[in-house]
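ok, trying the design again with the full structure, not the truncated one.
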């Protein structure tokens, strides 16, 4: 009978323990997110706040806010939906402001990608939401820093359809699914290693 492989077994055991630990960590984050969602639901009816100078603040999501757009430095478009659920393009302006620097402002929804919004600056009121983020999912999974915010305008310029209102379902709470995945990974790793050990026995 062959000797028990000490080093491979130790490596696999450490990996399994780490995956189980990540699973419990995700369960703890689920509880944190549920508490945060209660606060965010209340934010819809709270008084307006100034757009944060740093441009971030998870606890400010869905709060009413306003900016003074001195000029538009860029226009971007991303897929989205109108308040009625019709597919379209989110028209997002990069606005230079006197106090908050460059602020992303979702002006409204366009039915045509090439629609040019009739907006060159001025006061904008609306509510705070997350700005588009292109970072990989795995980075977002471990990132605890506040996300960047943008202002969702409540009065679209001519040619655009009104933006949807605050939607709690847009705030992901997938931590239970992540926890289950980590536990499954740990279980599968253990089973595969035990099968490998069984096959190497004479």
């Amino acid at each position: 009978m062959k000797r028990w492989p000490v080093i491979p077994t130790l490596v696999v055991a450490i990996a399994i323990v780490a995956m189980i630990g990540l699973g419990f960590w995700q369960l703890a984050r689920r509880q944190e997110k549920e508490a945060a969602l209660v606060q965010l639901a209340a934010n819809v009816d709270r008084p307006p706040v100034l757009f944060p100078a740093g441009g971030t603040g998870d606890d400010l999501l869905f709060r009413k806010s306003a900016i003074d757009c001195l000029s538009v430095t860029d226009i971007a478009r991303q897929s989205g939906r109108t308040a009625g659920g019709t597919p379209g393009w989110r028209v997002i302006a990069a606005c230079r402001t006197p106090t908050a620097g460059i602020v992303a402002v979702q002006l409204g929804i366009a039915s045509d990608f090439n629609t040019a919004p009739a907006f060159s600056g001025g006061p904008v009121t609306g509510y705070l939401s997350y700005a588009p983020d292109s970072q990989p999912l795995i980075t977002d999974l471990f990132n605890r820093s506040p996300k960047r915010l943008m202002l969702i305008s409540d009065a679209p310029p001519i040619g655009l359809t009104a933006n949807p209102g605050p939607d709690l379902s847009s705030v992901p709470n997938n931590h239970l699914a992540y926890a289950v995945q980590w536990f499954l990974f740990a279980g599968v790793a253990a089973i595969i290693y035990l099968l490998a050990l069984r096959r190497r026995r004479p």
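Keeping the full-length input from now on. DSSP finds three helices and seven strands in the chain.
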